[in-house]
User: Which sequence fits this backbone?
């Protein structure tokens, strides 16, 4: 039994509902003394129903009974349209009674008039080491710079100078520390290893990064048809960009701005090749434009997108995995600056939960204020939820989920 109800069991409620549905008004009124003790439903259900029953049974207190429940807060008369139609609704002052009931309708305790939204996209799958190895990797690299772009370019210059390129050898495991250790011992590797190191280095310093596989046209046959680069989200630019670890190179527009794979792909198809700027000993400016041929076919973090057809075979024998295979290149490139909003039951109270796909998101100040009418509360940086000020506090302090904005 719900809190607030006294001496009313489920059987009485079932019988009362049956009497209302069957229009057994006398039988319903016989239950009235017991229904009046049902404080949870008397004003909203049983009181109006008994008033209608009293009207049908010609009891002189019918109107008095309806007025009493209206005075007590009854307002949802739309649920009683049918049974009111041939009773109280036939009286001259029914519009006045309706207005009184309408005035009882409470305002919503909370109403959202605007909220941040994030376009649903595929999850961001980053190339990261375990926490211990990632921390060790972070200790090996240069200091971070003032902006994400400056830091990314600093890491690009550092990684591309660790060894001279050679396509004759590869590592089995995707472990930047192993690659760097072996490079320090004189071993040389290919684009795959440059990409592993640069991608994991960027994640180690808080820049979301993943591997990007590029294939030129006709990749189903021949040799050297593929190339690996890093794709990184730069917060200060608000977009994904390509960083070529092997060549220490970036694609840039006429203003020098870094470009991402979607723009590069579109420009490649249009025959409009942007600048390809490199800083590595491996970089050959004379053959730089040849690298743009690999932009014909792209795979971000395992997700392959094609506008038309797809050949799942590389160089005659290697399966080109697509997890998943899609048409729209925007899907695997979410805007990591976007914030999504959810309404949740949090610790027994209503709350707004804000989330972002950005894996390294941090609060920029101690709290983020949210307002409810004229009242103000704050969002903790460690608990990105907002409890409306009227919610009942509980003794629990554990958040319902972990996310950050």
Assistant:
């Amino acid at each position: 039994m719900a809190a607030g109800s006294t001496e009313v069991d489920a059987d009485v409620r079932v019988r009362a509902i049956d009497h209302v549905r069957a229009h057994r008004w006398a039988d319903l009124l016989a239950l009235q003394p017991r229904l009046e003790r049902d404080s949870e439903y008397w004003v909203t259900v049983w009181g109006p129903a008994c008033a209608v029953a009293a009207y049908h049974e010609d009891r002189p207190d019918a109107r008095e009974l309806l007025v009493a429940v209206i005075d007590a807060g009854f307002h949802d008369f739309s649920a009683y349209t049918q049974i009111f139609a041939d009773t109280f609704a036939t009286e001259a002052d029914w519009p006045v009674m309706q207005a009184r009931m309408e005035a009882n309708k409470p305002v919503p305790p909370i109403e959202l008039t605007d909220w941040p939204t994030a376009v649903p996209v595929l999850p961001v799958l980053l190339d990261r080491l375990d926490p211990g190895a990632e921390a060790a990797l972070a200790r090996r690299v240069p200091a971070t710079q003032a902006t994400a772009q400056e830091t990314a370019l600093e890491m690009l210059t550092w990684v591309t100078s660790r060894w001279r390129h050679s396509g004759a050898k590869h590592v089995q495991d995707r472990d930047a520390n192993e690659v760097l250790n072996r490079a320090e011992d004189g071993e040389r590797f290919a684009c795959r290893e440059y990409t592993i190191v640069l991608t994991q280095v960027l994640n180690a310093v808080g820049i979301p990064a993943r591997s990007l596989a590029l294939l030129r046209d006709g990749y189903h046959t021949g040799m050297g048809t593929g190339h690996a680069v890093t794709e990184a989200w730069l917060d200060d630019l608000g977009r994904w960009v390509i960083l070529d670890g092997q060549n220490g190179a970036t694609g840039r527009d006429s203003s020098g701005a870094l470009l991402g794979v979607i723009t590069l792909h579109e420009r490649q198809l249009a025959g409009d090749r942007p600048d390809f700027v490199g800083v590595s000993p491996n970089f050959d400016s004379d053959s730089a434009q040849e690298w743009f041929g690999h932009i014909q076919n792209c795979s971000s973090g395992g997700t392959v997108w094609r506008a038309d057809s797809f050949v799942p075979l590389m160089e005659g024998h290697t399966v080109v995995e697509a997890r998943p295979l899609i048409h729209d290149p925007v899907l695997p490139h979410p805007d990591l600056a976007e914030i999504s909003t959810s309404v949740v039951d949090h610790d027994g109270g209503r709350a707004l939960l804000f989330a972002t796909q950005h894996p390294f998101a941090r609060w920029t100040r101690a709290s983020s204020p949210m307002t409810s009418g004229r009242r103000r509360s704050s969002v903790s940086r460690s608990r990105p939820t907002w409890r409306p000020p009227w919610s009942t506090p509980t003794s629990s302090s554990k958040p319902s989920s972990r996310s950050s904005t």
